User: Fold these one by one.
Assistant:
Number 1:
Amino acid sequence: MVDLNGQYQSIKEQINLSISNILETSAFINGPEVHSFQKELEDYLDVKHVIPCANGTDALQIAMMGLGLRPGDEVITADFTFAATVEVIALLQLTPVLVDVEEDTFNIDISAVEKAITPKTKAIVPVHLFGQCANMDAIMALAEKHDLYVIEDNAQAIGADYTDSEGKKQKAGTIGHVGSTSFFPSKNLGCYGDGGAIFTNDDALAHAIRGIVNHGMYERYHHDVVGVNSRLDSIQAAVLRAKLPLLDGYCDARRKAAIKYTKAFESQDNIVVPVTVNTCGMASDICKCHVFHQYTLRITNGKRDALVEHLNDNQIPCGVYYPIPLHKQKAYADERYNEVDFPKTNKLVKEVISLPMHTELDDEQITHITNAIIAFVNG
């Protein structure tokens, strides 16, 4: 699904030198590489504050802690996503409220969000799934109307642009009150272990979060708030510093691969290709609003599971993200949920399949993959 070694070979000399320097200086925690990466990511995102942390799940949890959410507060998020999003809500003893998603973009359904808001609702967590932003204009309008926080789960969309209704462009993760991301190795900007970061333009919130990530300390051994131990280590920061200047190029390579996939599938009645809805005012072939962390098809003739088996048998990687809705997961099942409220999610989990998507994909590989899928689906 990803070719991390191929990507490493292209930046091997810089990576090895940076890691060697850290080993020589032994500045493993909060060293110069971490501080430099923080500043460089702030510049890239055009955001006032980036707070690095240990992983993307921590980033979400710490963002919620920084906002002062309390047990029993309701937090609305998408039913169709990875469990980390709802996991941290439950860990903090908040009340997760899962809602349906849009069938075409896979992102949270705005009408479902609005319907789910109650006097106990304190926050909305839109997940920018597979690399494309949710409808942030509508989400921010709802948040303002109901005095809610917006926490962007940007684990899959770092580098994506969002153009609002007035034509203003912002980077994904910097639009809401606070954003979070993951630097898991397979992400568009991935390190060689675990890593994450939190973004905000709110000075007071940034100050609170900086204490939380470091045991609640602003001064050593003075614990002013309840915190956690969640720090990005220097080796991971060095890897991310090497990759950050290449991120736009990485995303462009993914877009070019996505265009080739889409062209191959465009005349197939049983295959639905991903859509791009926020055009950024640019031609579709260079649109920056989707970074294609995943290239996800829908197989509409009931052959999805058989296709997965066929591809596996032929050594063609694929993935199903995600096979079970969160509202049906044992850990998050709740009598509040009614199946009639999740028609799109329940349909998508039976249809979606993600194809190999990374910076090293070539035309021969794409042709081999698409031909195998078309032949099987129509066979």
Number 2:
Amino acid sequence: MVPNIAVVLTDASKRILWVNEDFTLLTGYSLPEVFGRKPGALLQGAETETESILRIRKALQHQIPWKEDITNYRKNGERYTCRLVIHPVFDRNRALTNFIAFEADAADLPDGAMVPLLELREKYRTSSLKGIEEVRLSDRLKNLLEEELLFLDPHLTLKHAADRLATNTKYLSQVVNHQAGMNFQQYINQFRVEEAKKKILDDRLGNLTLYGIALQCGFKNKSTFYKVFKEVTGQTPKEFIRKQRRRVLV
């Protein structure tokens, strides 16, 4: 599964400048609604842990990266456990210019899986705005794949995606590696596997074989589909089907 990671960019005074679409999906707030506001005032509520708030404030004050699980609230008032990573961003003169935060609903994260953006990495500790540009390009790639379903094309290449995003293949490959922790093909295959899982469980497609579904999801052959499906999910397609059927019966 490719988890939704909300990204929040603030100025040095911690007022929001930009959020990505995953932030809106996670919280219900759009960019115009949050622009200029402070994330804590927006997302924290009655049951947000005081100790967590104090630790985060201290980290921001001392301009150090921080990772915390904290109770946040969506626009509709629903509580959720937010896995939060915050990095200060400095210019070449080591002056603080921004904070960048990566957030996710802890309930949506794969058990035991490492999500690169939710790890404290040296990369952002001394980053200039180049790191933020990478995040923006990564977000644009994810949106392009989800909105236009480019991953369904079995002939999709790194160059094709780079051309669509008006960038070069070297930089896009670097961005995928840094932001997702994998190469371009692995990243695309995650989307294909998620689409295959949906189709496998779709009763309207019951007449299709697993190979037929694989072809519809952008895989070129059966062996690659089986190999990639197990790499991504930890189970074969048939094991996935059996487990889903058992859940329905329980």
Number 3:
Amino acid sequence: MGLSFYVMATWVGGMVGDSLFEQRIRADRTSLESLAVRIAPTLAESDAPALQRQLISAGGELGGRLLLLDPNGKVQLDSYGEIQGTRLEYPEIVSILVKGQNVDYGVHELETGVSLDTSHLLFTRRTTAAWVGYCTAGVVYASDVIGVLLLVSPVQEIMQNLYQLQDQMVMIFAAIAVTSLICAWIFSRVITRPIAGLNRGIQKMSKGDFSARVKVRGSGEMKQLARAFNSMSEKLETLDQSRNQFVSNASHELKTPLATMKIMIESLIYQPDMDKNLRTEFMTDINNEIDRLSAIVSDLLTLVQMDSQNVKLTRENLSIAQLIKDNAHRLQPIANQKGQKIVLQLQDSCDVYADKSKLNQVIYNLMENAVKYTQASGVIKVSLQRQGRNAIFKVSDNGPGIPKENLPHIFDRFYRVDKARSREKGGTGLGLSIVHQLVLLHGGAINVESEEGRGATFIVELPLHQG
């Protein structure tokens, strides 16, 4: 910023200086050129008295001192009659005698003879100095330069005006600089404050604090960035809570059968004379708990594979209606034992290009859950229909239903509506989570509708892509 003000001040100073001197320079040059033309014949005749009279008269008219120099730069005549015979080497004289210019003009300090560059007035200020203007013109006769006229005129009034303008310019630039710094500071605060808040939020997240949020300020990209950060932080916090809950639930589910087996095994160890039938019952229970542990571990491995995107679908053309019939046939003996009725309402074969084993697992788990959790003499309805490019598969029962507050969590891992009844029936708490993941892998969706005491309906929507 300082460099820019330096450049601006230099440019403005030069422009103002040139503007103030332009009129004075034009007048002096015109007058001096005219005088040079008039005295050329007199100088050629070497009429010194006549030349002296002309110089004194013209000097009074021009308001300055006139000197006549020969082609070597030596003063021949001085309207003040003081420095005849002195050699002068001012740049304005050199430009006439050496460079061949007709006229020239410059500003000099009277005592030192130092020339002034009007474009650098701001940095060459000397208020006590006496400044004069040197205007030169070549005296030409018969196409030869036979002399040089030098007009020395005071320019102190012009310089004082320049100094006043300079002071005003400095004040203006100082005000602009201060205003610019204040605006820059305010602007930087506006920009950096939300960035600093975002940085603090990121640091908290890097330390494991996923509850970090930032204030949504400003507009445009910064506002969108703050909202995106908060959204990401919220999702990470939810994911972290879900992970912790999953680990806690998994530990509990694995610990329960282990604790049960430990109690029964200790009973067998410390009661060697236990009744044979009781011993057999204990061993059977231990075997059932091992099966349950194996099922939990198997389901956990399935979910881990799906989470890591390692599950690959082996797709083939198949009929959803046929899979439903096959699973109804498998579950019919269990339903018969409970006096239940499985009713199929298949309106279309719904041929799809899908992974047969995984889609079969979806259908079997939903139908098995309906049979398992529906009371004796209940009715399980399984329907299939085509809607546009999708197959709609529904499993409904008239069982106890699912309380409204449990519906949002029904597909969560290890979530059970009735934990005691679920364990009694041998469930791992992961079946519906696996079903949900498998449906998503096929590009479908699954939902549940239920009212407590009026049964439940699971609805699976699958795209009918053909191979």
Number 4:
Amino acid sequence: MSTTPRMSTIRFRRLALSVVFVAAMADAGSGLAQQNSTEGLRLVAPETGPEIRAQLTPRQYTTLSSEIAGRIDKINTKLGDHFKKGDNLIAFDCVIQRAQVARAQAVAVQAEKTYGINQRLLALKSIGQLELDVSAAEVQKSKADLASANAVASKCSIDAPFNGVTVEQRAREFQYASPGQPLLDILDDRSLEVELIAPSRWLSWLQPGYVFAIHIDETGKDYRARITRIGGRVDPVSQSIKVVAEITDEAPELIAGMSGRAMITAPH
């Protein structure tokens, strides 16, 4: 009589374990299906309308360097200062260079006067043609020396090559600079471009003039952009290509270095 309840208990436990196992397998299958579904979305997303990272870059930017050896007298711009094309940014101590220009000017005046006198002497048959030709050559030589001195003196100041802003100051006033030493990093903050990397398979329809939207993270706003240039080489490893665009909206709040998401949708 005691065997029957014991067998019932064993059967009940086996049945409970079977139910738990079936439930666990169902949950695992559901999780796997959900994972496959998510992976499928990730694969499909780039084809339907991906969000590609993009960055704002200046169209014009450069590092101003010293072209002569000398002491820096004045730096007329600081980090974040705006300037206009032609504004003086850096001035050097050029006492020696200005003295060389004055000397070259004096030599040039002397050579021209000598040549004028020799012309009159040749008319009087007092000198020969050779002396006149030598004095004429001295005039040309003095003019070349003067031009060279002026060229060196022109390097005593560095003017802004375009409208822009100073982004880094690499030297200080009264510091001695050597030729080729970087002094200032500047860029044009009003002429910005959008750089992004697009899949190379888009080349069949992504062409200059294509309009798309870009969301800038720093401002939290969307802007219209138009593709202006497409790179001339495809990266064979990533199968991607560099694309350059321009912001078509008026956006004075944008500055170089900002980034965001370019939302480009393939045509159907």
